[in-house]
Every structure is written in structure tokens, then in C-alpha cells.
Amino acid sequence: MKRFKEIIQWCCEPKRLFVLCIVVLAIPNVVLFFTEQMPLLARICNIVLPVSVYWFVMSLSRKPGKTIWILFPFVFLAAFQLVLLYLFGRSIIAVDMFLNLVTTNSGEAMELLDNLLPAVIGVFVIYLPTLALGIASMAGHRQLEVSFLRRQRKYALVGIAAGVVLTVTGYLTHRDYDLKIDMYPVNVCYNLVLAVERAGETAQYETLSKGFTFNATSTRDENQPEVYVLVVGETARACNFGLYGYERNTTPLLDKTEGLAVFTDVLTQSNTTHKSVPMLLSAASAEDYDCIYKQKGIITAFKEAGFHTAFFSNQLPNHSFIDFFGQEADECHFIKEDASESENSSDDELLALVDKELCGDHRKLFIVLHTYGSHFNYKERYPSEMSVFKPDSLTDAKYENKEYLHNAYDNTIRYTDGFLSTLIKMLKSTDASSAMLYTSDHGEDIFDDDRHLFLHASPVPSYYQLHVPFLIWMSDVYRRFNTPQYESVCENRDKPVASNASVFHTMLSLGGVQTTYRNDSLSVAEPCYMVRPRHYLNDHNLPKSLDNIGLKKEDISQMQQRHLSFP
User: Which pLDDT score, from 0 to 100, does residue 137 have?
Assistant: First the structure.
């Protein structure tokens, strides 16, 4: 015990604590020097100027313990940044990551934290002792000498001057260099401000969209029974579907399904649920994302055209656009709200709600299903009797568990195969003119290559996060009465498609819903469908071409092997 107190006293020596505080704050800058794809000068600036500013701030007080606590927000950001670097391997804290903190439910957060334990422990070991030493230093009333502070202030000012010169040089020599984008922690603070602004705009949605109307009408025979279903999957990637040539038979039922069109070259425009799903449910896209704050969703368009509408979700509401668009339906139900916190709701429970709607007295029916699909933890997404690919017992997010994780993930796809097959059988049994569109919000990394990437929502997406399944099924009755749509779907299924830009217009086209907001050149169910450059919605809600979002050579190679269109 005596030895421990001596160590604490040694560390609390003001000069040592002064240096320690600067070092722990600078760690993210040093790590980012090696991880970021920036010119060398920009990476040097990213160390010299921020570290010199930290140095200068620390020299403003004789109590280093007090100063480090004043800088606590930056300590928190540093810890957060290191955890994300552990998870994704590169990039700063994104706007979307801040928003994920308030839109991700507690269950998902705990599943993720359980598998980030090494990184969390690491940042605790680095930052908690520093903060504790700060408290101990304040309690001991230890102070730095004025002469020491003056000397350190001079050194810091020299460093700041050098950093300013380097930064100005960076602006002059590199056209794309931008302080608020490229320099940590300036860029993270900028992203935090953007996140707060977006949260405010989202909170104003009800006011901004009040009075909006599609002026939608139906072009179909009012006496013809119609049922249309849009299924939004979760974290399903195309390359693990047997339908897409995967070596495992993960889609045995869909393989035999008549009237099913498989679109081979479909990419999502976002690898985050809170952006991708709202785009699928509205006219918003990477090319025109801001319209989401003022317009209502596809459910309202179908309602205006005379359809009874329903939105059923196996995810928890999170006060996002998914909730807003879902609540526009005549029937809206988030089934996880009825379950206990420990209960794992099955996607199949959504089918019972669908059956109830199909048995209702609705001549025109439009249903949106939001599944939990293949979201991590994979093994919890399917019942034990559906465990076809084994072993799947180990669930920790570790590279050495790659085989187990892939097996469990493939079981989720097999489960989705059964879910969609059952849904199609239910639609067939109605004898109505019916159609179903299924796609996923984004894909997933599962330690697929030497980069050891895992999960999704990384600031820079990979191929595995972008390539999503896109399936359209049409009943015999539908194909008989809507030949142009059927033929167009067959004609367009091998063409490049941006899922988020196309789903809204394709569903309106399939359902015969006419509105000035419908763009048939974006609908794969129309002969005038137009192939155009595909974009990705970046963290600042700007559309970026695929060759300008930082895709690695491994991702481009995967796209080329699968004959996907790439600029």
C-alpha cells in the first residue's frame, strides 16, 4: 500500500502530470497520422498544430489537474475516437456516429460494447488514471512553477506558429485540404455541431412537412383487389445469398419461387440504418437528401391513392424518420415495444400481422415490413432449429471466430429465405393482383479479408456494406394485368441500380400510384428506366461518386469480380 501511494505521488508531481496530459490528448492525432489517407504535410499538420494548442492551454494554469478536467470534453472525444479506430481501422468520429448514439437502442449498444471490450478497457487504462491523477493533484494542492509555465508557453507558441505555417502551406499546395475536415479535433467538433443541427431539423419534421401532399391517384381498376408489400431487410449483403451465386445454399426456397426477379447489380447509398431506411421509404436519395425534412413518405402516397396502409417493424422506435414515415400508416406497430427487454422478437411475428391485414376487408392494401434480418448478434436472429450451418456457437467479434460468425450470418440469410417464401405464399393465397419488393438497408463486414473489418456504418464503406439484395416478386394475376411492369422488371434486372434512389419510384410504379413526385426513369418497373452514375451519401449528406469515397483496392476488386458497374 505504501508503495502504491509513492507511485501516485510520483505521478502527481505537477511537471510529470503536465506532460502526461498533453500525451494522452495527442494519442488520437498520432494514430490518425498512420491511418488516414492524406498528404504527408496534412498529417504532420494534424499533429503539430493541435498538440501545440493542447500544450499552450496546459500552460495557462499552475494546476495541471484542474486543466485536464476543464479539457474533459476533449478527453472524452479522444477515448471515443480510439474506440472507433479499433472498430473501423481509420477515419474520425462521423456525424452519423454521433447520431447513432441517440438512435441505437440500448440492446444493440450493449451487444456492440460487449464485443468492443478490448478497446474500451484500453481507453479506460489510458484516460481514467489520468483523470484520477488530476483529482489527486488538485487535492494535494500541487502547483507548477511560474517560470516553468512561461517557458512551456513560449515553446507552445513556437509550435503553434509552426503549425499555422504548415497549415497555410497545406491550403496552398493541396486544393482539397480543409481544416474542418482534415484536422483532429477540429473536424470532430465540426461533426458534432452538424449532428446537433440535424437532430434539430429532424425534430422539426412534423412542422416542416405539415400540409405536404403528393396529390397521388391510382391508375388501376378500382374493383381489382391489390396487395403490395415493401420489405426492408436489415444488414443483408447480396454476396451471401444463394440467389447471387453464393457457394452455400442459403436460399433454397426462393430459388424455386416462380415470378421472382433477382437484380444483380444493386448498391445502397448509405451504410447506416438511420439514413438508408428513410431514403427507401421516401423520395429522398443521395442526390436530393434534404427533401426528407419537408416531404412525407411512400405510405402517404399510397394512402392518398386509396390504399389501406400498414407499417410493421421488428425494431424499436428511435424518434427518427423511420418512425415518422411508419406512423403515417393506418396501422403502425413496433412489435419490440410489446416484448420484454430480454426477449428476442422473431421476424416471423410480423407475418401474423400481415395475415391479419390480408384477412381484413381491404380491396387495396399496401404494407411495409421492417425486419431485424441479419443484424448482429447474428445467432439471436434465428431459432436454434434453423441452425443449418455449424458451428455457430461463438459470437464474440474476434477474427479467430470468423468461421462461427460466417456460419451464424448465413443462417440469418437462410431464415430470411424462409420468411420471404412464406410471405409470398400468403400473397399468392389472396388471388389479388400482388407484388413484393425486398431489399436491405445495407450490408456488413465479417472479417472478410486482411483488413479484419467488422459490422457496418464505417465512415468509409466497403464492398460488403454496399452490395445489397434486391428482389421483386409478382403474382400470376399481377403479371397478366400489368405486362409492361413485368417485362420492364425482367429487362432491367441486370442493370446497375441505386437502391435508395429507385425503391420509392419502383413501388409507386408497381402499385399504379401516379404523382408528380414519381420519376419513371428511376423505376426498374418502367421501360424508360435510365442507368445513371451511382452516388453514395457521405457523412455530410453530400452525394459522392463511388470512385470518390475512398474505396480500397480490395473493394474495387470484389465489385469487378461480381461484374458490378464501377466508374
Answer: 83
Picking from 419, 250, 441, the residue whose alpha carbon sits closest to that of residue 346 is: 419
Those residues with Cβ within 8 angstroms of residue 280's Cβ, 6 or more apart along the chain or in another chain:
230, 232, 439, 441, 499, 500, 503, 504
- Angle value at C-alpha 177, between 174 and 180, nearest 5 degrees: 165
Mean pLDDT across the chain? 91
Give which of 455, 375, 371, 465 is closest to 418, Cα–Cα: 371
Taking each helix axis from N to C end, the angle separating 14-35 and 117-139, rounded to the nearest 10 degrees, works out to 150
Considering only CA atoms, which of 435, 469, 474 is closest in space to residue 258? 474
Contact 437, 534 (CB under 8 A): no
Measure the CA dihedral 448/451/453/457, to 10°. -120
The share of the chain scoring above pLDDT 70, in percent, equals: 95
Cα torsion at 286, 292, 293, 299 (round to 10°)? -170
Q: What CA–CA distance (Å, rounded) separates 479 from 65?
A: 73
Cβ neighbours of residue 325 closer than 8 Å, sequence gap 6 or more? 278, 281, 282, 296, 297, 298, 299, 311
Please check whether residue 49 is in contact with residue 170, taking contact to mean a CB–CB distance below 8 angstroms.
Answer: no
Which residue, chain included where needed, has cell 419537408? Answer: 294
User: CA 71 → CA 101, 102, 237, 305, distances in Å?
Assistant: 22, 23, 42, 56
Q: Which residues lie below 8 Å from residue 512, measured CB to CB, with a gap of 6+?
A: 218, 219, 220, 226, 305, 482
Q: Worst-scoring range by mean pLDDT, 139-148, 377-386, 487-496?
A: 139-148
∠ at Cα 545 (281, 35), nearest 5°?
A: 105
Q: How far apart are CA 524 and CA 197, in angstroms?
A: 35
Question: What is the separation of C-alpha 517 from the centre of its chain, rounded to a whole number of angstroms?
Answer: 26
Q: Give the residue with greater pLDDT, 1 vs 508.
A: 508
